[in-house]
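Why this split exists: single-chain examples teach little about how molecules sit against one another. For that reason, every record in the complexes split bundles all components of an assembly together and asks for one structure covering all of them. Below is a record exactly as it appears in the raw files.
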Amino acid sequence: MNRALTDIYARYDRRKTSAGRGAFGQSRRGLLLRRVSKIAAACFASAALALTASGCGEASTESTTTESTGAADGKLKIGMAYDVGGRGDNSFNDSAARGLDKAKAELGAETKELTAKHGETPADREARLASLAKGGFNPVVAVGFAYKDTIDKVAPQFPKTSFGLVDSISDAKNVDNIVFTEEQGSYLAGVAAALKSKDGKIGFIGGVDLPLIKKFAAGFEQGVKETNPKASVQIQYLTTGTDLSGFGSPDKGKGAAEGMLDKGVDVIYTAAGGSGAGAIEAVAAKKGSWAIGVDSDQAKDPALKKYASVILTSVVKNVDTGVFELAKSVKDGKPLTGTHTYSLAEDGVSLTTTGDHLKDIQGKLDEAKKKIVDGQIKVNTTT
Amino acid sequence: MKKIDKERVLLGLAAPLLAIVVAFLVTAVVLLATGKEPFNAFGIMFDYGSKADSQVYILNKATTYYLAGLAVALGFRMNLFNIGVDGQYRLAAFFAAALGGALTLPGAIQIPLIILCAMIVGAMWAGIAGVLKVTRGVSEVVSTIMLNAIATAIIGYLLQTGRLGHLDTAGTKISTKPIPESSHFFEFPTATGPVWGFIVVAALAGVAYWFTLSRTRFGFDLRTVGQSGSAAEASGVNVKKMVVTSMLISGAVAGLVGMPTLLNDSYEYSGDFPVGIGFTGIAIALLGRNHPIGIALGAILWAFLERGSGQLEFQGYDKEIVGVIQGVIVLCVVIAYEVVRRYGLKRQQRQVGAKLAAQARNSEKQEVSA
């Protein structure tokens, strides 16, 4: 009889625990945890105390502070902080990386490259720039407008270091703001598109509807309209607002391009980072249509080379020039500061001619370029 | 009895320790496989992570993670899987930032207003999932994850110039209007940078979580529903009401997640406002076993690992290695707890069995002697 009782007790116990398991278990462990929690509380409290006690201890800065005073020791050390994607994105970051490689080769610079993570906070960006500056890197180049507020904060803390900020403008004194006239390059692309299109139906695919991408759209549309007033430009953004996936989704680029091609569009300009590959692929599948690439010469991109015959041109933003010039100025002991706009005039933005697809219209492009450089044509930055 | 308790404590501590040790071992293997020396990497992380400025960073980051962990844990205790914390905190932070940028009231009034706004928006957004669950039987897992995507779209639509967006001088960054300086949250200045004042709010939220769940009738009902809905219903708990209420509360706490960043750091909502913290919160709630102190330790560990990742990258290691550690820790924790739980259960059954057998022997003896 007592034997049976034991069994029932044990079974009851088992049932109770399995029912009590819920999603993440409470009953038995709940009891257990409550005991544990007291010990944990004690540990936590002492850890917190230890933490605050050592809060006035050594900082990571103190052990490594060697903030360099430029190229005093003759060796140029360049620190690069990339935007999300980093080296190898075949687009914006890669363009900056080319400038770094050039500085390495021609100026004998030592380099350190760090890359932003997806979903990081301003504190992470600050830590990244500060660690480069602390490590004695000078200049420290921040690639992408997301670094603007971070530069505002960090640059004044390291007055002897020169900072570079690509695509935005900071008011800090020791910062070289490297900005581009994307709209001018896009205007020329618009001229080319209008001249190459058979019935004037032209498309623009933007990655995300950010102000920066709208600059591309505005210049492009103006270029098309001023070349062929009867032409129309269809503008489409892959994603909106804070959803930045439009810069890295070839499938979205492909879908958008296919939609445009079905409506009779025969030239598509895609300013959408990694999504552009999908758009170019879609264009290649339809005979007689053209794609226009962006940021880097996409006809030379290893992954897109096979579509080179349909890539009319690419609007190149020469971030490398800006990066190299800053590095050189630091090496020469006269670091650049203030805002430097790399415009069409100094080839800060340009059209590529890989494949010679522009040969027949080169004259008209040169004419348009001259008008922009002379100021006869003023290109819009907003649509 | 006292002795058994001690063993239980040891068992309880064994699980997380085991998990962390195993996680580091696995990571060491991964590091070795990539041809890097593992102990040097750990050395770098610990050395750098224990520096004073790292401590400030870790506390600040853990503040955000702690709130996210609490929001998720509230749902877990109720057996609700609120994957939507991510959308809830972003939408909440966005509207709170827009409100904060539009007003210029004294800080003493405006800061509570901003926080309240965030909590209400978070609660409303989570409440949609709660109402759908009780009225239409929609699984909260599906609805909350869908609501995440909708939250992204709403923010994308409203964060435009002419709506709630505000363009910076360079014309490249769009954000809500910055919150006036008078409404910035207080900070604790230290020699190596300020510790965010919001850590106080996070601690209070932790105390409130503990008190509500373990010291109130509401908390008891919530845990009961979490363990068995039908049993709770039978004992007179209105389960539907509990589902909606706990979703609202979980959402309100989720609304707080973006506040440390907004009121202590960025002071505006822009395209680079941190995303994905809701999902980190799930990992941290798992790590902390839904316990307020466990979650705190989990949040600190998470922040510590992230702090180390930056330095690892600087030293030429792949920073992804920290992602590997984090993933392995969560897996190990889940496995270790299950292993320890089963062991504890067996042990307990043995003890109960032994006790009953002893009793039986005693009574038999009595019967014999009688």
